[in-house]
Design a protein that fits this description.
By secondary structure, the protein is of the alpha+beta class. Helices cover 34% and strands 28% of the residues. The protein has a four-stranded antiparallel β-sheet with strand order 1-2-3-4. InterPro entries: Dihydroneopterin_aldolase (IPR006156), FolB_dom (IPR006157), GTP-CH-I_C/QueF (IPR043133).
Length: 119
């Protein structure tokens, strides 16, 4: 299967269980793998036969940075992004998303906390 991959998209959002997370915000990193048939796009050099990854970036950014709709969990945030992508892009066959929360409020030393969904 063909893929479009967006790795390391960094955004600032207000998601989390703790009130401080909703008030102060923190950094989130999103990785996306979009699987679809890119044969016609490649043969015809046609943007209409593929998914515009610049648009995807902007749409994901709007969801993650929307301070008016914070999610408690990164699982819910990932599901929100996947639902939007499925609705908007009918040519998608499979999506893998990883939402990282490197500043998660965990007592201890760690590099990253993340959730991965596959649909």
């Amino acid at each position: 299967m063909d893929r479009i991959t967006l790795t390391g998209m960094e955004f600032f959002g207000y998601h989390g269980v703790l009130p401080e997370e909703n008030k102060l915000g923190q950094r989130f990193v999103v990785d996306l793998v979009l699987e679809l048939d890119l044969h016609q796009a490649g043969l015809n050099d046609d943007l209409n036969a593929t998914i515009n990854y610049a648009e995807v970036y902007q749409e994901v950014r709007e969801l993650v940075e929307d301070a008016h709709k914070p999610m408690k969990t990164i699982e819910a945030l990932a599901e929100l992004i996947v639902s939007m992508l499925w609705t908007k892009y009918s040519m998608l066959e499979h999506i893998t998303i990883t939402v990282h929360k490197p500043g998660a409020p965990v007592a201890g030393v760690f590099r990253d906390v993340s959730v991965t969904l596959e649909r």
